Amino acid sequence: MVKRAYSARSQLIRAGTTSVDLGLLMGPLEDLVARLCTDGMLTVGDVAAILRCSPRTVRRRIRVGQVVAVKERGRLLIAPEALRDHTRQR
Predict the structure, then answer these.
(1) Residue 49's CB: how many other CB atoms inside 10 A?
(2) What share of the chain is helix, strand, coil (3-state, %, to 5)?
């Protein structure tokens, strides 16, 4: 995917046009950027796997204040320290 993006970039710089469908690259590239920008943060799915519960249970614990989370680009993210605090309280 990244190789195709660089190829498209090179074609655009050299010729002003590309044969790569940039629309198909946008979703995966946005996901990659979001993952890189949240380095170290855990998703609801990550926390559910660690705690061996459902993502719904994690969201409920966030809603009632048992787990501290931040919302970024529509995703709930949990710092590892917040998860450690939660597990110590239990």
Answers:
(1) 13
(2) 65, 10, 25
Q: Give, as one character, the DSSP assignment of residue 64.
A: T
Tens digit of each residue's pLDDT (9 = 90 or more) over 22-35:
888 777 777 666 66
Q: Which of 29, 34, 31, 37 is nearest to 4 (CA)?
A: 29
Positive or negative torsion for Cα 33, 36, 41, 42: positive
Helix, strand or coil for residue 74? coil
Asked whether the predicted pLDDT for residue 78 surpasses 90, the reply is: yes
Q: What is the DSSP letter of 3?
A: H
